Amino acid sequence: MTNSESMSDNLATDAGRSVVFDGTPLTIGDVTDLAQRRATPVLSSAPAFRTRIEKGMAFLDQLLKEDGRIYGVTTGYGDSCETAIPVDRAHELPVRLYTFHGCGLGRLLDADETRAVLATRLASLCQGYSAVSPALLEQLIAFLAHDVLPCIPAEGSVGASGDLTPLSYVAAALCGERDVVYQGRRQPAGEALAAIGRERLRLRPKEALAIMNGTAVMTALACLAWQRAASLARLAGTLTAGAVAALDGNPYHFDATLFEAKPHPGQKRAAQRIRQLLGDAQAPRHAKRLQDRYSLRCAPHVIGVLEDALDWSKTWIETELNSANDNPLVDPDEERLLHGGHFYGGHIALAMDALKTAVASVADLMDRQLATLVDNRYNNGLPANLSGATGPDAGLNHGLKALQIGASAWTAEALKLTMPATAFSRSTECHNQDKVSMGTIASRDCLRVLELSEQVAAAMLVAVRQGIALRRRSGYALPAPLQPFVDKLDAAIPLIGRDRALEAELRKLLQEIRESKWS
């Protein structure tokens, strides 16, 4: 067993499987499992993998001896590429690179986000095109295995030349500089390295560039966003079924034959999920309203857009995840140095801009469903604001009035954030980086839209629980397939008779939504 493999045994005991880094493709699920400590990272000890890594490193050393002119190794960076650096001082350049990029601001990435960044950068470096040493890969594995998390400011990347500034905090931490969080405490990286029995890494020529000049931050955040968006899509379908039941709506809007006539795959899946919870129905259940309002009737069409966006964006995200995306690339097989622009995060940027728009639309759908549930002009006989109060104190209680206002505010903010980041490319770095992707901003925006949309979903859980309970007072027969969901709601959310502050309950529901416990 290699040193890196033995270190991986120190992960939390709830890690259920291993994710092997050997240059073969990883999935979004691999990254999210590592981010949430449900999996153990293992660096492959396979001879073929190790040989490929070492071959790239050796070829770079050969180039230094024979030519001595390699971008970012014996030249300055970016627009400074015409500045020559003596070969005997090339080892100083990596330190300078991560040092001058230490200017990030904004919040720090949280623990899950930081683990995802480490895993994503490691996956790219393991492709074998970055001319890094096994020691660098082992240091990254050690950080993941021991949960040593660099303190990475979220702001400061334009998404090309990669995520330079945020990833400088990874490079510095591997070398024992700047701060990390280890065992729940922020501390100097050098202290954490000593605590886990690791030496400070001394970066070889090009290694800082290999760490920093890539799309790891935007791609890591995209993996986490994708997982949360997929969970929200499933929950939105379940909540729609609950809203139909609470409003005594018409299940036949989700008929299977109807959706074969317009067969978008995600739309069909969304309709099927709702139909399965409500039971098949071939004709209107009643004549109160032949067609329900759009927020019920068109729910599969709204959720389906998100479902289909998840399908194609998964391919884009996983392609980026499993790519070599720094510059220059070193081809160890043909022994060629390849200068290009794979650090450009355009695919992640557009995927995140599209995904956040589809997510915000689902938030808007849930907000409209909630507005219908609380309005006694449209909710088919339920009390105003879904108040469960009865008797002489009924007039003192206001039910879910404030909750609906809050959901409207969260939805409005989510919708406001759908402005595409990709439309705001800037020219920077002396016009060398004169067209950039904004991919990291798009990924951060998508996560914020998801946070707000999950808050709307938490409000809907409360509203659906209350609405179904009040509907059943009049003898409504709940569809049998929906019963387990309603039982879970009843156990988690006490009926609101007399008004109470809901913040603590909402925060608990929100955490459960983020852990996919409701989808």
Q: What is the percentage of strand-forming residues?
A: 5-15%
Runs in which pLDDT lies below 50 for 5 or more consecutive residues are 1-14
Strand order of the largest sheet: 4-6-7
- Please tally the β strands and state the result: 9
Give the class from helix and strand content and strand pairing: mainly alpha
The second-level CATH architecture of the largest domain is Up-down Bundle
CATH topology of the largest domain: Fumarase C, Chain A, domain 2
**Arithmetic mean of pLDDT:** 93
Q: Helix-strand pattern, N to C? A: HEHEHHEHHEEHEEHHHHHHHEEHHHHH
The number of helical runs is 19
Number of domains: 2
Give the termini separation. Answer: 39 Å
Biggest sheet overview: 3 strands, antiparallel
Q: What's the CATH C level of the largest domain?
A: Mainly Alpha
- Sum up the overall morphology in one term: elongated
Key words describing this protein structure:
519 residues, mainly alpha, three-stranded antiparallel β-sheet, 6% strand, 19 helices, Fumarase C, Chain B, domain 1
Task: Describe what you observe in this structure.
- By secondary structure, the protein is mostly helical.
- Helix content is 52%, strand content 6%.
- The strands form 4 sheets. Strands 4-6-7 form a 3-stranded antiparallel sheet.
- Helix 15 runs parallel beside helix 17.
- The longest helix is centred in the last third of the chain and has 34 residues.
- The radius of gyration is 26 Å and the shape is elongated.
